[in-house]
Design a protein that fits this description.
By secondary structure, this protein is of the alpha/beta class. It is built from 14 helices and ten strands. The longest helix is centred in the C-terminal third of the chain and has 26 residues.
């Protein structure tokens, strides 16, 4: 690797060593051992050694994953006798990729979110059918389902208990005409404890993603699951059974668009719900709603010939890594052979698409940081509905951000992303004084 004769235009590895104090400088310590200066920390150096056919380094990055670190790459490049001389040390350093952020749009969206959240949620609830009062039943009319859903989802958005949420909604509605009379604080708990609520929330989550359909067209989708824990643990058994106390949790299996982080389809299971069987239902549901992803990425838990075959049938290129015991045998799946060879022969190109999967981890992190990982409800049905409400809140927040980032019009589901960009709110209280988005209707919440 480091052999070869150096001519007049070639320099030996000793003559190409940089100044000892410069970042990334390589200096020989022995025949198979070298010292490389740290790129970021002055007066710190690391030793690399070629042993048993592999390079080893004592830097934290190599000790953490035992892979090729930047110090090994620098030494290999600097000791190559056929490498042309570098003119700048900075050009030899491998820079970590960074991703830009439209901070003016982000700031404007965050300022407008408190008001726009209620407006978008109320618009989304417009198509919710109202439950009819049973014939012959006396008493006052039931509370409109639209208003119950507004209060329940808003309670999750405020990340507080029902009583405090009702008090904050009373303060927010005072003098603004949004809610004429705030319902009882127990309304969210009663709604979450009804079986029909899960179907309504699932439909709302799916419909809330439709405005970003064109924006995600032809992009990459990512699938994964994450657990959400309640505030209680499983009960103790008697001491003679040597019990283990562990937190109960439920899993949210989600399919997201990597460009915006919108949750396109979701399935809630218990803590034993496997990931692999959810791949086909979630993908089919997204395609049935008009989403047309070009690629889909997931971890090894989703690797199966059935999943790869279904992706090929839908015209989607799957990027799911092979397991250590995976074999080439296709068993009737052409996509399996293709991905098997891509994974082993073109690993760098495969990983470039596969690592888009980190976006779904970012979505779960956003939900848990913004709305909390714990579920406050006390039984399984209520926890399921509360988790669906968290995902709905996340989708509405993403919509608000994309209004300012890409100028979408949420008033028309599926509208192209060519709508004008909104100007950011002006003044410190612009979001509270009436900053609105185009296409959003603002009826009074108490009106029927």
């Amino acid at each position: 690797m480091f052999g070869g004769k150096g001519g007049s235009d070639e320099r030996s590895w000793r003559s190409r060593s940089l100044d000892a104090a410069s970042p990334g400088a390589v200096a020989p310590v022995g025949m198979i051992e070298f010292e490389v200066r740290s790129f970021t920390r002055p007066n710190v150096s690391y030793k690399i050694r070629f042993e048993n056919g592999n390079w080893k380094c004592n830097c934290p990055a190599w000790l953490d994953r035992e892979g090729i670190c930047k110090h090994i790459k620098k030494a290999a490049a600097d000791l190559n006798p056929f490498r042309p001389p570098a003119t700048d040390v900075a050009t030899q350093q491998e820079l970590r990729p960074t991703y830009g952020q439209d901070w003016p749009a982000y700031d404007a969206a965050r300022q407008a979110m408190p008001l726009m959240f209620d407006q978008l949620l109320w618009d989304l609830l417009e198509g919710v059918p109202e439950s009819l009062q049973p014939v012959g039943r006396e008493g006052r009319k039931p509370l409109p389902l639209r208003l119950q859903l507004l209060m329940a989802v808003k309670k999750v958005y405020l990340t507080t208990d029902s009583r405090t949420a009702r008090g904050r909604m009373i303060l927010e509605s005072g003098g603004k005409g949004m809610i004429k009379q705030v319902p009882n604080y127990a309304t969210p708990s009663r709604l979450f404890n009804r079986e029909e609520t899960a179907g309504i929330l699932l439909d709302l989550v799916e419909r809330s993603a439709l405005p970003l359909r064109d924006l995600e067209d032809g992009g990459t989708f990512a699938i994964d699951s994450s657990g959400f824990t309640p505030t209680c643990s499983s009960a103790y058994c008697t001491e003679k059974h040597d019990p283990t106390r562990r937190h109960q949790f439920i899993k949210a299996h989600t399919l997201i668009g990597c460009k915006t982080g919108i949750v396109v389809s979701v399935k809630i299971t218990d803590d034993h719900g496997a990931d692999c069987p959810q791949f086909i239902p979630l993908l089919r549901l997204a395609v049935s709603h008009g989403f047309r992803p070009a690629k889909i990425t997931g971890d090894k838990a989703y690797l199966s010939r059935a999943n790869l075959t279904e992706s090929e049938r839908l015209g989607i290129d799957p990027f799911i890594p092979m397991k250590s015991n995976s074999i080439r045998a296709s068993k009737g799946c052409r996509m399996w052979i293709k991905k098997f060879h891509e994974f082993h022969a073109m690993r760098e190109e495969f990983d470039a698409s596969y690592h888009m999967r980190s976006n779904v981890e970012a979505v779960f992190s956003s939900i848990k940081r913004r709305l909390g990982e714990r579920l406050l409800s006390k039984n399984g049905l209520s926890r399921l509905n509360e988790l669906l409400a968290k995902i709905l809140v996340h989708n509405i927040c993403v919509i608000i951000h994309e209004i300012y980032e890409h100028g979408i019009d949420p008033g028309v589901p599926g509208a192209p992303a060519s709508v004008r960009k909104l100007p950011p709110p002006e003044g410190p209280n612009a979001a509270a004084d009436g900053a609105t988005a185009p296409g959003i209707k603002l009826p009074a919440v108490g009106a029927n």
